[in-house]
Amino acid sequence: xxxxxxxxAGRAGPxxxxxxxxxxxxxxVVGGLSxxxxxxxxxxxxxxxxxxxxxxxxxxxxxxxxxxxxxRSMVTEATLAAGTGVATATRRVVLLGVLxxxxxxxxxxxxxxxxxxxxGLALPGLVLYDHAKAVAVGLGVPSGALWQExxxxxxxxxxxxxxxLGLVDAxxxxxxxxxxxxxxxxxxxxxxxxxxxPGWYVDRAQRRVAxxxxxxxxxxxxxxxxxxxxxxxxxxxxxxxxLSAGRTLLGPVNLLLSTAATLTLPYLARTRTASRSVxxxxxxxVSLLVxxxxxxxxxxxxxxxxxxxxxxxxxxWELARSLLVLLALESLFAVPxxxxxxxxxxxxxxxxxxxLGVLLGGLRVPVVVGAAVLGGxxxxxxxxxxxxxxxxxxxxxxxxxxxxxxxxxxxxxxWDARSHPPAHRRHHPVPPxx
Length: 434
What we know:
Elements: H1 20-48, H2 51-82, H3 86-111, H4 114-138, H5 142-164, H6 170-191, H7 204-219, H8 223-235, H9 237-249, H10 251-269, H11 276-302, H12 306-313, H13 317-321, H14 324-346, H15 350-408
């Protein structure tokens, strides 16, 4: 069967489609299930593996994140924006999955890493899974994505339980997670009538746009995954493993941050037609609100007692413990950075956001790699915390400067957020953050 999609006008939806508020709630639940499953796998591997093995897993997982992000930026977001061509877009998804998964699997064979082999083989199905989920949440019926995520979560839970009970080793836990997600993705795609034969049948303009967005992703958001691979190449997988072990404990914090980022955009959008002072106060208010929720969690992780840390991470706790304060600061500094980025999206300052993202992304790779080579895991964690502080100042400061500049060009009689602006000044709703 084919997946129902929302009409281009946005007034009609598929039969049984939820209202916008319920759709947003279901999207948050789906995101929470996904993050919870990934956290369960990470905790299981960290508990069962050596620090080098944890580094190999972290590298394989970053390849999955990189491949999934490329597919989202080059294919999925364009499909969501157009609202059409859902069934045929999967041809490009599968092609990108094969092109990304092939080198990852080959690298795993060359270096004897079962984690890279498993993720490389499953990557076409995994990116298909993520694409189908995003389409269901954005255009179709989100409850389908909820069942999809629940199925993968059950498979992941069984694999993790088998590992914690000593029935299988950590590579088989990751294989169960990766292959389970890939199989679910293929089954969902077949049931919805998607075309699974790989291909790239778009015109030259669409191809150029897709390549542009893919390059932008690699230079901005994807630079975090690229830097992790570079650290593994130049400083060794044990350094990556120590960073991954510490970040595993911060998984609930990062889940809260991602959820808050989803809600920040519409919150700031509601004040877009208000005065500069109102919008500035809204940005400060939401930053403080998120920080109040994040600060106790980061403090709890940074001050985690040794017995609890050993119970969660096993023998890798000793290595992770020295990094927790720095990694907790990185998570805390991410709050104003996320608010500033959301503010630029609301103001539709795409050129400013791209330029700033490229500058920060280009800075991340050499700084983190250099610090890892010189100072090991502690040096890399310190570099990540420092870069997070720079990002917080850059994104938040850029948004506030933009508000000041816009206010300087705004007539004194502008309408506030409680008024209906004149028809010739009325803004269209801001598209959801991709």
